[in-house]
Write a structure and sequence with these properties.
By secondary structure, the protein is of the alpha+beta class. It has two domains: 179 residues, tt1808, chain A; 137 residues, no CATH class. The chain is built from twelve helices and six strands. The chain has a six-stranded mixed β-sheet with strand order 1-2-3-4-5-6. Helix 1 runs antiparallel to helix 3, helix 8 packs across helix 9 and helix 8 packs across helix 12. The radius of gyration is 23 Å and the shape is elongated.
Amino acid sequence: MDRIDALKQLVKRFDENYKEYKRDTYNEHSCRDEFINPFLEILGWDVTNSKGLVPQYREVIAEYHASSSDRPDYSLTLRGVSKFFVEAKKPHVDISKDPSPAVQARKYGWNAKHKIAVLTNFEYFIIYDTTTVPHDNDKCSVSRYRIYKYTEYVEKLDEIIKLVSRDSVYSGDFDKYFSETFAGAGSQKQQVDVLFLKQINDWRIALSNELYAKGGRYASLDVLNDVVQEFINQIVFIRICEDKNLPLYHKLKDTITDSATLQKELEALFRDADKRYNSGMFSGDYIIFDLNNSVIADMIKGLYYPQSPYLFSIIEPNMLGKIYEMFLTEQFTILDNGKI
């Protein structure tokens, strides 16, 4: 059976039982098994790994047991390198009108530095531009590049194949097309590494100015650079552990619930991290006792919803390495007004 016939049968089955599939009782897992997986296979993707590739080189990495905020449902790869995500919902969820699934899919793609993300409940197949910064109050139409209804799939199959098929990705056409299509610049086109570096540098300035005003050992720019970088490393490391469900899970945000105990709670968390990981990252003197609680709290809040667009479970470690390479190329300077 060719793919046109396979798709016609899939669409026909969905259409004939449309009311049943739209019920809340018809779940996402069933939708994926019965409709989304076959549709991806029609687009050439080896969803079940019938080729027997080793895990790191699977064409499709599917998540079935993660929570809604952990990982996207499918990662479609080029020899193991993730190229775009597919986020699945059950047909009862109207992804053509509900903004939250769209923001979720866009966050996944943006944090991975992908060009696009796909959101589908089979009733709709939507492609989003993920080169723009996602915001929680965005409408579902923001950065929506293509939307197809299941009744259009057969007619528009060639177009969909051109955009997101396996052949398009493996031939290089996918990268070429979307690099050209989403090449524009602008305030909403900031990539995750650039935006995160800016936030880190904002923290560096705020932390260093407060410490520099105290004098003493903090009058040295070399000392300032070292202690501020160490503190940022500590906070970001713990935050990454949380999103990756490693030990110390969801403890960082708890430290800022009461300003009177913030320093004590953060010190306890650092000491726990030092014992657990024994990496030396938490073994030095803690500058938290020389910082204003509001500065620390603002920094930690900036790593969480709703202020933060970052999903550290998605951001690749090598991207964090590139961020720190850029971070290390910039140094403190004292201005004429005595500010860093």
